[in-house]
Amino acid sequence: MTQQGVRWSAEQVLALAPDAASRKAGSKLGAAGPWSEAGSSDEGTVWGQCKGSGSKPYQTVVDIADAAGPAYRCSCPSRKFPCKHALGLLLLWAGGDGAVPSGQAPDWAEQWIEGRRQRAEQKRTAGVSGSSSGSGDPEAARRRAERRAERITAGATELEQRLADLLRGGLASAEQSGYGLWEETAARMVDAQAPGLAARVRELGAIPSSGPGWPVRLLEECALLHLLDQGWLHRDGLPDGLAATVRSRIGLPGTADGPPLRDRWLVLAQYDTADARLTTRRIWLHGTDSDRIALLLSYGAAGRAPELALPVGLTLDAEVSAYPGAGQLRASLGEQFAPPAPSVTRPPGVTAARAAARYGEALRDDPWLDSVPVTLDRVIPIPDADSWQLADADTDAALPLTPAARTRPGLWRLVALSGGAPVKVFGECGHRGFTPLTAWPEGAGEAVQLC
């Protein structure tokens, strides 16, 4: 940590919390009282023992310099990652008041760190050998790909018939048939090995009777699903980039085969979405030298947070490699050349009008795109009972917030941060509106996470 020269802020530590309860409990442990034998190393390790309800204190260690984000180990029985003890230890360290001095790690902490490094090296070696062996029979791989493509084509053809039947019978029939028919169709798409189609079919099933204007929304989503079906059925005639986008939307796995781009990547936002099967974490990065935007995706089993965690406001000196597809921003995090470090860097911003235009331009490469990442410069949040807005301070333009964003408690943090003055806001801009994720006050000040 002394190599970094600066420590994390409390806000950056609390951004790692898996839920609000952990955030609250971790905050209570961010004082020296319950801790003993706390320390840190120049290599990016923090450790300490926290007094709990039992006779023995909990042994907690955090590896901040891990390339995939902070890693944690605690002897407490909690199944959350990080647990409240890891959060409290990091808050104690972030305070910078001498409660976590530099020193030599105890044996129990050193053994965990060494074990992690050995497993990471074994995994890397296994990945290289696995990649080599996987490419040893390209003919078998080609046959497998052809068989899957045939199944997807059969599924897409069946789905086209299902959409035609729906429109022939009228959209009102969708309200009467209930969700069961849609779930059956989605299961058929899973059998066809087209998880992207299955997910969109399930979304269709949730639209009937979902509120005023649902027939319009259903028709719009049917049109997009029809377009994706047709894109797959006519993929051989598409430009390479758009064909790669169609394959990705269908659900075919891709690899981050783009050339590695080394940059100082600023962490703009991190947030999770979850369903009954999976927790998905999205991390937005901005290359301070290349002005590139990259999206890191990681996954965890239902109820468990993904391992990759990068608090907002940190900067990574690292390589990222892009996934294929026209207009696709997803990337894979590669080699990291230094531990993540706090930064005062801010991304460049645009006006509200330019943000809307940017989304329109992105649709040409990916018609199924819900939103694009964008930073708004000098906007003022305007609360309203029905429709919140972010209004340009220097023009008459404004962007409405998405319905989902209007229910988040983080919006009031944005209002408090602004106080009626312009702020810089990063978020996602799409056809439903703007979802704010991170904000910076005018002038100096740290990033404030809103999600």
Architecture overview:
The chain has helices at residues 10-14, 20-28, 84-95, 107-134, 138-169, 172-177, 179-191, 195-205, 214-233, 240-250, 352-363, 410-418, and strands spanning 35-40, 45-50, 58-63, 71-74, 261-274, 278-287, 293-301, 314-322, 331-336, 341-342, 371-382, 389-392, 398-400, 423-430, 433-441, 448-449. With 451 residues, the chain is an alpha+beta fold. The strands form three sheets. Strands 5, 6, 7, 8, 9 and 10 form a six-stranded antiparallel beta sheet that branches. The two termini are 27 Å apart.
Task: Looking at this protein, list some descriptive labels.
451 residues; alpha+beta; 16 strands; 6-stranded antiparallel beta sheet; single chain; 37% helix
Shape: globular
Number of helices: 12
**What distance lies between the first and last C-alpha atoms, to the nearest angstrom?**
27 Å
Number of strands: 16
Strand content bin: 15-25%
Mean pLDDT: 87
What's the helix-strand series?
HHEEEEHHHHHHHHEEEEEEHEEEHEEE
Main sheet specs = 6 strands, antiparallel
Low-confidence segments: 1-5, 131-135
Portion in helices = 25-40%
Could you say which structural class the secondary elements and strand pairing correspond to?
A: alpha+beta
Query: Mind telling me the C-alpha Rg?
Result: 24 Å
